[in-house]
């Protein structure tokens, strides 16, 4: 279980950073008409988010999270800064032995 939690934590941070980069790329695309960054960052974030989903579901199954808790953690990778918060909550709840 420790390995699954570590993999989740790493991907939560990576996805969070790339989501912030994606927001910057979107601003550049629409405010400055510079769409090149979106063509690079968009697919990378999508690929990393897919990995985040798989690792989150793996951890959810191992820790027996509720469907609601699992869904909220899965959605955390789509809202800027939320994956960082979700990662902290998952670590706290796991340390306490409380399922999501």
TrEMBL record:
Main location: membrane
Taxonomic superkingdom: Bacteria
UniProt membrane topology term: Multi-pass membrane protein
This protein's record includes keyword S-adenosyl-L-methionine: no
DUF3817 domain segment(s): 5-90
Transmembrane portions of the chain: 12-32, 44-61, 68-86
Keyword annotations from UniProtKB, A to Z: Cell membrane, Membrane, Transmembrane, Transmembrane helix
Compartment(s): Cell membrane
Protein name (database record): Membrane protein
Lineage: Bacteria, Bacillati, Actinomycetota, Actinomycetes, Pseudonocardiales
């Amino acid at each position: 279980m420790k390995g699954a939690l570590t993999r989740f934590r790493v991907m939560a941070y990576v996805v969070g950073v790339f989501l912030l980069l994606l927001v910057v790329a979107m601003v550049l695309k629409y405010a400055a008409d510079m769409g090149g960054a979106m063509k690079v960052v968009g697919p990378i974030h999508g690929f990393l988010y897919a990995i985040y989903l798989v690792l989150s579901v793996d951890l959810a199954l191992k820790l027996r999270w509720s469907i609601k808790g699992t869904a909220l953690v899965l959605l955390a990778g789509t809202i800027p800064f939320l994956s960082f918060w979700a990662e902290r909550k998952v670590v706290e709840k796991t340390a306490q032995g409380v399922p999501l």
